[in-house]
Specification:
The chain is an all-alpha fold and about 375 residues long. The protein has 16 helices and no strands. Helix 3 runs parallel beside helix 11.
């Protein structure tokens, strides 16, 4: 909304002030600061409200004594803190993003939809509806419906001379190899959005783990989106130029700011958990940012920690079904490391370090073309 005001100014005395709103870098920094400050102020109120409403985490696992032991200290912690994160992201985006940009509107609508799905799942868990919570097939179906709508809209048209249904390949220049997927591009978008959404959710098992790693990934995609939407920089780096993609920088920066604020209260020992309410929407937004910036395949590197966590679950399930043997004591990987004696802080900080390295490597790949 504030961004749109600069188009309405008439007086010369205001021209210099409103001229700042033309710069994506200024608005991204302002969005990050706004989201951080707003979320920091909102979360203590939300924590008290959640406690009063008995929206508290139940860490008892009927089928795993080990999980119950590992999570015993977290029992009774307020959950659904993702409401605070989403409020910070959406509020800052409304203030600083160009609301006429189709990518902004699409991403915000998706955040609201996946956030609502997460609220329903968290509510059902807390109220004992389902075992535990929303049946997995229902949740997956909801994610696929939302992601399919997003994927079809993204595939409907591109800007900047680069087809929306072409897939950019890391390390290769766009004029060397960018396969045209046609209608199949929507399937790739669905896979990325649903996969990223669930990967963040799987990672959300230790204090500060998902929020810290998501902060790093969001900031990485804020850089990648800015590059994709800047014709000169995109041309210099030989990456696809997508007109309008730079506005995703605002949303990613806002998410980074809101997540940092959440981490203030989510760091060990956590005062609040994000729940599916936050995890599903955060992962989904990362998937959309990857598609808009035309760095879809790079998401596997940007979210390297999420890939490790998801991969450990897939390997565990496959091994048990095929060999009746487990690879890890418990999956995902962070729980295995806790089970073999690593402290919670050590696991979280080391995963943060891996996440930062992955993000730096992902940005560095832009020069290797």
């Amino acid at each position: 909304m504030l961004y749109l005001l600069h188009r309405l100014h008439e007086a010369d005395s205001w021209r210099l002030v409103f001229n700042l709103f033309r710069y994506v870098t200024f608005r991204a920094a302002a969005a990050a600061a706004t989201a951080f400050i707003g979320t920091v102020i909102l979360l203590p109120v939300l924590i008290r409200l959640l406690r009063r409403s008995q929206i508290l985490e139940n860490t008892a696992h009927p089928h795993s004594e080990e999980l119950t032991r590992l999570h015993k200290q977290k029992n009774g912690t307020p959950t659904m803190g993702g409401l605070g994160i989403l409020a910070g992201v959406l509020g800052a985006s409304l203030l600083w993003a160009d609301l006429a940009n189709r990518y902004v509107l699409l991403a915000m609508a998706m955040v609201i939809a996946l956030g609502a799905l997460g609220v329903a799942d968290d509510w059902m868990k807390l109220r004992g509806i389902g075992l535990p919570g929303m049946p997995g097939r229902w949740k997956l179906a909801g994610q696929v419906v939302v992601a399919t709508a997003v994927g079809l809209i993204l595939a409907a048209g591109g800007d900047g001379g680069f087809s929306a249904t072409r897939l950019a390949v890391p390390f290769l220049k766009p004029d060397i190899f960018t396969p045209e997927l046609g209608p199949w591009y929507a399937a790739i978008a669905v896979f990325l959005i649903v996969g990223s959404s669930n990967a963040v959710n799987l990672t959300d098992g230790l204090d500060g783990l998902a929020s810290g790693c998501s902060t790093v990934a969001a900031l990485a995609y804020s850089v990648l989106a800015y590059i994709a939407g800047h014709s000169a920089i995109a041309g210099y780096l030989n990456v696809p130029f997508i007109r309008g993609a730079e506005e995703m920088t605002i949303l990613c920066a806002a998410m980074g700011g809101a997540l940092l604020a959440f981490l203030w209260y989510n760091a060990h020992p956590a005062e609040i958990f994000m729940g599916d309410t936050g995890a599903l929407a955060i992962g989904g937004l990362l998937g959309v940012a990857a598609c808009v910036a035309k760095q879809e395949l790079l998401l596997a590197l940007v979210g390297g920690v999420f890939v490790l966590e998801t991969g450990s679950v897939i390997l565990q399930v496959a091994s048990f079904k095929l060999r009746r043997r487990r690879i890890f004591r418990i999956a995902p990987l962070h729980l295995h490391l806790r089970s073999i004696g690593w402290s919670e802080d050590k696991v979280v900080v080391r995963f943060w370090i891996v996440s930062i390295i992955c993000a730096l490597m992902s940005v560095a790949t832009l020069k290797v073309r």
